[in-house]
Structures are given as C-alpha cells and as structure tokens.
Amino acid sequence: MAKRKISKKQQRIYRRRRIIALVLALLFLLACAGIIWGIGAGIHALREGSTQGDKATTSQEGSKAKDGKASRKESDGKKAAEKQRAANQTSGVKKCGPDDITLDLSAPDPTTGVGGSIDFTAAVQYKGTGSCLIDASDSGRVLVITSGEQNIWRSDSCPSKTRSLLMATGDKDVQTITWNADASQEQCQPDDNLPRVDAGSYSAQLVLKSNDKVKSQVVPVLVQ
After folding, report:
1. How far is CA 36 from CA 31, 42, 43, in A?
2. Does residue 157 fall inside a structural domain?
3. Do 82 and 110 have their domain in common?
4. Which residue has the higher pLDDT, 125 or 72?
5. Facing residues of 132 across strands?
6. Residue 192 DSSP label
7. DSSP code of 115?
8. For residue range 4-27, what is the model confidence (pLDDT) as tens digits?
9. Which intervals of the chain are annotated as region Disordered (predicted)?
10. What are 92-102's pLDDT values in tens digits?
11. Looking at the 3D structure of the chain, how many domains does it have?
C-alpha cells in the first residue's frame, strides 16, 4: 500500500492545531490552579477572621473582667474609706458617764395576761456638754424586770449587736423593748423556750450596763 504524502500546507495546519491544543490545555490547567488557589485563600481568610473574632471576644471578656475587678476594688475602697471616716469621727471621743445622760422608761399599757407581752418605751437623753459615745443597744441600756429582790428577766440575757451612738447636746434616742412576760434563764434561749411568769405584780427599770448607778424610774407592771 502506498504511503500517503502530506503536503507542507497540511503540515503547517497540523502544527498550528497542536500548538492551539497545547495552549488550551495549559490555560485549562492554569484556570484549575487559580480556582484551587482561590478556594484555599477563601478558607484561609475565613479561618483568620474566626481567629481574629475569638481574639477580640477574649480581649473584650478580659476587659470586662478587669473592669469588674476595678469596680469591686473601688467599692471596697469606698467602704474602707467610710469605715475610716467613722473611726476618725469617734476617735478620741469619751464614753458617756453618769453626768452625761438620763434614762427614762414608760409603759403605755403596763398590764397583760399570763403569756402576753408589754411594750416599754426606753429613752436615752444627753444632758452634758460636748459629745460622748454610748451603747444604746438592749445589751447597753438594759431593761430589768424584777419581783421583790429577784431578777426575773433582763434584755441582755442574750447578746445583741453594739449600737454605738454619738450623743451631743439635745440628742435623745427612743426605742421600744418588748417583754413577753417570761423569765430569763442562765443561758440564752429563744423567748418561745422561756417559762411564762405567774400572775402578779412586777417592776421594770432601765439600767446603764456600763454604770449601774445610771437608772430610770421604776415602772410597776401587772400580769393577771
């Protein structure tokens, strides 16, 4: 069989087709590489954005925590300053003595039944000059209920918080003390656990614990 002879013109056409095919294949490969690179760059950008967001969130949380600590420190500082001012105000102030105050006691309704109660009005009035400190709590100016020579009940039988008052000329402190017609025991007990007193006549008096010479008038009460 005779071998087909290709003209020079056809050879040039074939060469051009091969070149075009190679160029197209190269462009296709470049396009694929560009797409892959674009996808990778997008993923990297998303990761960077997420990392930056986490860093910003962490930074904000850290800032909030610092602000919270600073706020607590500021609050603690104010409380300490207030305590210091209160200490400075009372520093060097003398305690009230027997010549500085008077005690007054009254009972609007001095009669109750067995198991009832009587409300007393306890008043501390300053009569001195300058100023002085006094514990005006139920453990400082004490309500004492007696029957003859026997102590029946005291308002300081159970401890109470100190209630320090800075008294000055003209000051008067008035508080209500309730006696539930019961009898104190050697150890502090709730009123519900204390025994009720029998019907009879009793006496009430307000006494300054720091100086028992400072007393109010005696107020007779009746349990019937």
Report:
1. 9, 10, 11
2. yes
3. no
4. 125
5. 167
6. G
7. T
8. 566 777 777 777 777 887 878 788
9. 50-108
10. 788 888 889 99
11. 2
